[in-house]
Amino acid sequence: MNLLSLVIANREGNIQIVGWNKVEAVYQCKIPLSQAISALQLGGAVAKDKIFVAAGNIVRGFTKKGKLFLEFDTNLAEPIKCMHVMGGHLLVAGMNVFSQYEDCQDAGYYVSDDEITSVIALPIEKVRKLMPILACTDRTLKVLNSAQLDFSVNIDGIPTCLHLMFGDGGELGTDLLYGTSDGKLCLISILSSEGYLRWTLESDANAGVTCMDFFDLTSDGNKELITGFDDGTIHVYAIDPENYQSVSPRLIFSHCCNESITGVQGGIFGHDGFEEVIVVTYSVMVSALLGWVFGLTTETTDKKIRVDDGNFSISEDTRQKLIRLKNEIEELQAKVVQERDKYQSATQGNQGGYSAVPVFAMNEKFVLNREDASYLLTLEVESPIDTILIQSDVPVDLLDVEKNAAVVSFSQCDPDSGNYLLVTFRCQANTTRIEVRLRTIEGQQGTIQAYVTPRIQPKSCQVRSFTIKPLSLHVRCHAFDPNRPYNTLQLKGHFSVAEMHSWLSNCIPEMPERAPASGEANLTFVSSFLDTLLHCAYSKGEAEFKSDNVSTISILKDCISKEATKKKIQLEIDCDFNEESVLHTLQLIRPKLDGFLTLSKQVSLIDVLKEIQAHDPDVANVLTPEYRHILTNADKLRATHKRQPSYLDRLYGMITDLYIDKHKYNGINVKSKVPMLMEVLDRHDFNVLVDFFQTPAHALGGPGSAHSHHSHHHHNQHLGSY
Asked: Are 437 and 401 in contact (CB under 8 A)?
């Protein structure tokens, strides 16, 4: 099999075609473009030997020798984010607009309310027609026909990457693989009018899927699935070719490079006869302005390194390679020193010196993890990071992240000045990526700011801001259960659909990018912490919201009232409180409360049990199953408990808010009863808690006063007093 050439493009606008001359990589061709490249794909009518790149609104085509043969201005209203080339068909998508072209002639467009993350089409030679498929952030796959929506497939998770099964869609060409922002891999069959989910594979990467490829890495005639994740993990999965629709893939190889993966490709590149995985990462080499590229090979290293009588010996081929690498590193180091000296002399000279603030690219993500209702803040820089300072003007819990190799320092904050968190991460050498896990409190609205300082001269810093919305733990879902006890909020007034859409976008995450073109919207959200639902239905001048958690309705009412007041729009507000919803929400909180209390009790017993075991090693034989479980899983229990600081306060805060909101709709202020509620909670008896909730406030004793429905509800402000 012939060795392959690589085509690599980067955000600086450079395309490079790289070959291999048995011992080292050789640049066959370099093509500089003036714009950042957003998409790269191979295509061609017969063999896939043409290079297509998208930059801005323009798609360019190059031969494998680097000769330009196509420059096509799509006239797309947005910069191209993703592209798919199939024969004479060109599919491109920006943030919300999709366009398709046939032989460079416009063949239609489609506007999505939600952001488009990826685009692909089923193989025409198998399905006999062009079927573009769009992955969208509203957790759907949109299947198009003649550039119009044919049907949508609801999926669990935000799709980030699409790839045809085995690269050709499987036997019928209808099998599509997609990856999600929370690390799931799913196989779906696109049928004539619906999508059928075959299987879902949970990965342990706990990061978004960024790229996929299929290649036979084991030389058994069957293709393996190669997957890249944005935390730097590469997975290789074996797939049963006969039963791939019913049997999920099996992990056979894993590697982590601690930098976000932007591309993976299987092939034979460096050594003839040995299959390899070529990987491109986010970071940029200063010398070549090229993303780091490395290979994982199936070639064994035993033949290159031998051990005889305790002495290591390496092959001549490997020795020469090491010498070349050493020389290259020395040359780069000398060049860096030379440029640094040149810069220093220019800035310190007497002839009107100059100083330039270094520009560095940064890749940041702020993603809600539905599994544990926490946000993962990821910051990645092309140069090693020196320090990261994180500041928040809303209360948040900082959770432990095991991957972080950084020294964490907390500074004292004054909440009265709007500063609830100030923490510094001092990174170890060569750290280019850091993860911070945070848990927010619903009802609080504000901003988290990250100040990132890399190890470059002169010192410079970039700031990134991330908005915390009042209903920050809610995510989009597709199922609405009509049988729950719902509280209802109805609003009427002189507002447009776009205004209501804008108000909700300031309150709830994962709202569509655009207001609905139809003039009516029906959206459902689920709380990632409690699994309560929120249904939003709105049109011009009317809006109705339903939730089985009265606190959600209370937050939404306060938020929309505030936004309407800013616009000087009067609202007619009607709230229908359902008493049954309170017990329903308490029942949803109960398993979390019982589970954490049990965990806390188990952790408190670990030291005592270990001390007993130290005196009597055979004591485990006479212990109850519960105590044996605690001893056996001591480290795991402690780690789980450590990852959940302030978890009990969070649950107590939700229960307190529920109690306050329950009485708020009856016009009673029960904040004076909160200490009594704390006493009840500390008894750890759910039945007593239910009785407390069902007892009228006036029967509990203590002062109570009228409380206006329109006063602002400062959610969870009392949390720190427990």
From this structure: yes
